[in-house]
Design a protein that fits this description.
Elements lengths: L1 H7 L13 E8 L2 E9 L8 H9 L7 E4 L13 H8 L3 E4 L11 H8 L3 E4 L3 H7 L1 H9 L3 E8 L4 E3 L11 H12 L3 E5 H7 L16 E5 L10 H4 L6 E6 L4 H9 L3 E5 L1 E2 L2 E2 L1 H10 L4 E4 L2 H10 L5 E7 L8 E2 L3 H8 L4 E9 L2 E8 L2
Parallel strand pairs: 3-4, 4-5, 6-14, 6-15, 8-9, 8-14, 9-10, 10-11
Antiparallel strand pairs: 1-2, 1-3, 7-16, 12-13, 15-18, 17-18
Helix pairs in contact: 3-4, 12-13
Length: about 350
């Protein structure tokens, strides 16, 4: 199952609205498991991992075992049900990490396998699979994508020398790690203040991975994104969406749309974009994993609304050395300090940065 989880990650950020599933077909031998085939959900969500693995295995699948990170689907969509393909293949056992909460499946896939005489084992590496498929789970149960917060701070806890001023914090190795995380997200989301201060590209710039750049999303209540910004000027190369308030200037919408930017309209809440409704709008478009790089203000607003699922906190070894913009606001600090809501997943040193990863418990 760990091998299936690892292979499923290969297409994270590329399969939305489908989950990035991994599957391994194997047979037990006296020398240990003999792997026959592997499969993972392909770009745009099809073919599915099970179909890929079964195609690779061919007749060798008969009498074998499949370990798959999510319950095989049991409904007709853009592809036939994977449960039917598994039954026809002659597999003797299917090991499933977690059931699919999609109401079109929700245990029916496993039930169909059992009814056909296939042994089904459920719950192997369930926590890891839950985190791997959290975007899919959030979208089908809460009608929003999973929110993966990335935040950088100096050793003394600052995100910038002052609000509105760009401050490079992370080192080269830490920055490369962030670009890899971008490649595994469906979208990167920032606030308009970050764009006005930094004029960022928000792309994946690792060698050979430029095609893995996610959709770029700007929270922009009053639709202030300049048509001359890098995001607007490259919107036809990398999809760029602006989430603007319904009552914002329609003339500005039109100017951005001329550049290829897509403008999505969302109601306000307390003068700003309603974050809950904004995420629902993204889920309606198929988004499952949104990486927030919007800085302290957006991070604390997401924390206040209870919309953060995972947190990656990068802490540089060097202090700012003077007063600046605090990276972690009060609502986010409360989350990080509350071990009944979030748990520490990992901590590592990469070059000049320490990277701590936290995940919501449920």
């Amino acid at each position: 199952m760990r091998a299936a989880l690892a292979i499923g990650r290969r297409c994270l950020g590329q399969t939305w609205p489908n989950p990035a599933v991994g599957a391994v077909i194997w047979k037990p031998t006296l020398q240990g498991p003999l792997v026959i085939a592997r499969g993972f959900t392909r770009k745009t969500g099809r073919p599915h991992a099970e179909a890929e693995a079964l195609h690779m295995a061919g007749e060798a699948a008969r009498g074998a075992v499949m370990s798959v990170t999510l319950e095989p689907c049991s409904h007709y969509g853009k592809t036939p049900p994977c449960a039917d393909a598994v039954i026809e293949s002659g597999l003797m056992r299917v090991v499933t990490a977690i059931e699919d909460p999609d109401p079109r499946v929700a245990g029916r896939g496993n039930a169909r396998l059992r009814a056909a005489g296939i042994e089904v084992v459920l719950g192997v590496e369930a926590r890891s699979a839950y985190l791997a498929h959290l975007g899919h789970i959030r979208r089908v149960t809460q009608q929003r994508p999973a929110v993966l917060l990335k935040l950088a701070q100096t050793a003394d806890g600052y995100a910038a020398a002052e609000a509105g001023l760009r401050t490079q914090i992370t080192g080269a190795i830490g920055s490369s790690r962030v670009h890899m995380e971008r490649a595994e997200a469906d979208a990167i989301m920032v606030g308009i203040s970050t764009v006005l201060a930094d004029d960022p590209q928000l792309t994946c710039r690792l060698p050979g991975m430029s095609d893995r750049s996610p959709v770029r999303i700007v929270l922009d209540s009053d639709c202030r994104l300049p048509p001359t910004s890098l995001l607007a000027r490259t919107a036809r190369q990398v999809p760029t969406w602006v989430l603007a308030a319904i009552d914002s200037d329609s003339g500005r919408h039109a100017a951005l749309e001329q550049s290829g930017v897509e403008v999505l309209l969302v109601p306000r809440s307390e003068g700003r974009i309603d974050l809950d409704l904004a995420l629902q709008a993204l889920a309606a478009r198929g988004m499952t994993r949104v990486m927030s790089e919007g800085g302290p203000q957006v991070a604390d607003a997401l924390a206040k609304a209870g919309l953060i699922d995972e947190i990656t906190l990068l802490t540089h070894m060097q202090p700012l050395g003077r007063q600046g913009l605090l990276a972690v606001g009060p609502h986010l600090r409360a989350l990080l300090d509350d071990n009944t809501q979030f748990e520490a997943q990992s901590s590592m040193i990469l070059g000049e940065d320490r990277i701590d990863h936290f995940a919501r418990l449920a």
